[in-house]
Structure formats: structure tokens, C-alpha cells
Amino acid sequence: MNHAPVCGNALVTGATSGIGAACVKMLADRGWRVWAAFLEPEIAAQATEGNVRGLALDLEVDGSAEQMAGTFLRESGGGLDLLVHAAGYVEPGQLEWIRPEDLRRQLEINTVGAHAVTRALLPGLRKARGRAVWISSTNGRMSFPGFGAYGASKFALEALADAWRIELAADGIKLTLVEPGPVETPLWDKAGKTLEKYRETARPEDLQALRAALDGSRNDAIPVGRVVETVARVLDARRPPARVMVARCPWEIRLLRVLPDRLRDAVIQRVMRMRYSPRGK
């Protein structure tokens, strides 16, 4: 792979923890001037240190992305060499349990949020002929029971990226999707706490199976450093890929995707029943 190390202005969303926080550190260590977007305004206000500057971003608030982008464009000189969009969360649960407002929130943050942030920052990306890296998921390639809302948000994110990658090419802007499998981040603990709201309404065996699936994802998770290394390789590439998967066993996803639908469904049902469901014992 040809390399073209470039340092300039970078903006990272989801900087509070997990992949976003790790990308902020990686970029700052490489000499980038990093604008780190936090959900919590109080953390953003205290985050300015060295070549890192904190910004506030709440993807559930109309106009927050535009306000954040305006602050960045004023303070940075206007050029954005790199956008890493890592903000997002998991809304676990069988689709029967999930209320329409919960599905809307999942899509609002994970999908509409990526569009809003990127659109608001387009003047900076155009000026610098910059790059955008969106953190997607292997769930953007295949949806699994208990994670249908999350999968829907990532499938939609991939659709946006496929269209926008071509639309932005005329401006010299490159867009890459990084698709991690489970990663060692606080996301899984937060998802487990979210499940507790279904304790009184879901069948106990179904809830237990989904808790076990979350535990399995946590146990199979890769270190966050592997995702950050993948982002770094994308940045160094003269011709970055459209998408790159990083997971413990990426071949499993690739294999499942080429199976006929009915066979794939049967395989997933069998594996999840054996691994997670008390009814399969």
C-alpha cells in the first residue's frame, strides 16, 4: 500500500470514550490538530490541551451539528483534512420490544447524525480536499436477531456512504467505511443496561438469551487499538478503500453473506440457539 502521511486539521466525533477517544489520541500523537466532539458540554469545555480542542455535539438536538461545524470552521481557518465520525450507540432488543420512538432515536444518532455532521462540515472538507472515515459495523453487512434496530442504522449508513462516496469524488473528497465487529469499549455495558427496561415485558428466556448474546459479543471483542490501527492505515493510503472490515473472524460474515437467505437464517438460528438460548439446552 502506498503511503501519504498527512497532518492538518482533524475532527473526531464520539470522543468521550471507545473508538472516538482512541482516534483522538492517535491523531494527536501523530501531530494532527484535533477537534474532539463530546456529547457532554462540560467535558468539551475542559478538553483543550496541547493540539486537542474540545467541541460539544448532541446528535439528538436539531442544529447541534451545524453549530459545532460553525465553531470549527471559524477557529480552524476553514480547512478540514480529516473527519472521523465515530459517534453512535446500540439499541438492543427484539424488534417487537422496541418502540417506534426508540428506533427513531437509533436512526437519528447513528445514521442521520453521520449525514448531519458530514454535510455541515462539507465546506471545510471541500477546501482541504479532505477525507472522511465513518465508523460503521459488521452489522452494516448483516443484521442479527436482537440487534435489528442497530443493524438497520448501519445498513442505512452504508447506503448513504455508497452514494456520497461517488458524489464527493468530484470535489476530491474520499469517504471510507470502517466496519468493526465487537470492540472492547463501554458500548456493551451500556447496551446491557438498556436491556433492563424490558425486564417486566419480555419473556425471561428471550431476555436471558439476549443478555448471553451481549456477553458473547463482549467476550469475542477485539481491542480498540485494532480499529484505530485500521483507521491509521486508511489515512496513510494514497487510494483509501471504500470499506474495510476489522473483526476477530471476518470470514464468518463474508461466508454468511453468500449463503442463500433461508440457509443463512437457519445457520444463524442454530448458532444463536446453541450459544445463547436456554431453550436450546
Helix content: 40-55%
* β-sheet strand percentage: 5-15%
Mean pLDDT across the residues is: 89
Structural class: alpha/beta
Biggest sheet: strand arrangement: 3-2-1-4-5-6-7
- CATH level-4 homologous superfamily: NAD(P)-binding Rossmann-like Domain
- What is the count of DSSP helices, taking H or I runs of 4+ residues? 10
> Biggest β-sheet, characterized?
7 strands, parallel
Name the shape in a single word: globular
CA distance, first residue to last residue: 48 Å
Outline the low-pLDDT stretches.
Answer: 1-5
CATH architecture: 3-Layer(aba) Sandwich
Q: Strand tally, please? A: 7
Under CATH, the topology can be stated as Rossmann fold
**What is the top-level CATH class?**
Alpha Beta
- What is the element string, with H for helices and E for strands? EHEHEHEHEHEHHHEHH
| Cα Rg | 19 Å
Number of domains: 1
